[in-house]
Amino acid sequence: MSEVRDDRQYTETHEWILDNGDGTFTMGVTDHAQALLGDMVFVELPGEGDEASQEDEFCVVESVKAASGVYAPADLEVVEANEALDAEPELVNSSCYDDGWLVKFKADGIDGLMSAEDYSDTLD
Amino acid sequence: MKRTPLYQAHVDAQGKMVDFGGWEMPLNYGSQIQEHHQVRTDAGMFDVSHMTTVDFKGAEAKVFLQTLIANDVDKLKTAGKALYSCMLNKTGGVVDDLIVYYIDDENYRMVINAGTTEKDIAWINTQAQGFEVSVEPKLDLAMIAVQGPNAREKVFAAMPGVEEVAGELKPFNAASLGGLFIARTGYTGEDGFEIMIPEKSAEFTWKMLLEAGVKPCGLGARDTLRLEAGMSLYGSEMNDEVSPLEAALTWTVDLNNENRQFVGRKALEKLRDDGVKKTIVGLVLEGKGVIRDHQKVVSALGEGEVTSGTFSPTMGKAIALASVPMGTTGSCEIEMRNKLVSAKIVKPPFVRNGKVLV
Q1: Does A60 map to a domain?
Q2: Whole-model pTM?
């Protein structure tokens, strides 16, 4: 069973988004997604200050098995990228909800996210 | 889906089971990269019971195999000696790649791929018509490959009596004891054994190997290991339409004995005389990213295609085997996710016995 956390929201494409309450959001991939992709070997992240429009591919997570794009859930500006993933992409596997986060960004709000419960239902 | 006698052992070990050519097999047991390192640095084991063993018996077993396959079994003089080869169709394409073991002039054992088994058996039976040879697929055998620098010693610890039988075996040789057939061969670029045992002994043997500290490894690690070792995979580097001369497998073709008219020989000779246009080379990616199967390769001599691409856990870089125009050297570019990325052309293997060679 994949872990889903109640403190955050989810996209249909298996990313989690945590509202930090200060106009910024933290984003990563879900436990379900990391298990499907398998061992991560590269994570390509945007730089601080980069802007992305909704639906732009702004990160790539690449496992031994496949490369997978991560799409901007809203018009956003990157505040911080998780540089630890450069040296340790496997953090996405071992700690997808904590140390394996991908980016922090500023956005005016994000539409169309699912609650933990609704996301869990899609995994059944 | 078909299951091997070790299916339950895989499930018990948290194997992530996937459909592999109609067989329900473990892709990994958690992390395929850890499993890869386990084989490079210690000892790991793979269930390869889905592969098929075929015995050839009869007065004309030898002359039949000299006709069936492109390498010459006349090279095999001592019991247990193994030979890697391909069997070809009339146009020189590869029906399958295989290992054949010599028992005596009237007894040989062959191991063929799982995914091609039905096609192979039908092909072999057609070719065997008119020869005094019986073709006997051994479907009640399990096969476990134990690989890694500590593999042999751990097999001896796990399987009492085996050291007396296999302790002195040289690479590419096999020995047998009753229903056990043990070969110092593999598909990882490390030392080790491939062990054939009766189906009913499979689970016990697997458990004894686990007890001796051999870790289970899945198909994911098997693929990254064989690719680092520069070994071909049927269906990727060669197939019914690719000849061994076009797949860097010329060393498995023996044209010395002009009287040996093996299937596909005429086509190979014509191809050789006309000039072979393509070959398989190794690629090492210089930047980030992972090379994937079927990506386009652009070189000074023309275009090619990635036949097997992956991430090398030992090197920490993406590597690949690719089909390119004959004579391509130096560097090339690979079209990856709509970008051209530079790669170095190398001669495989990339890694052997734990050491990076490129």
Answers
A1: yes
A2: 0.94
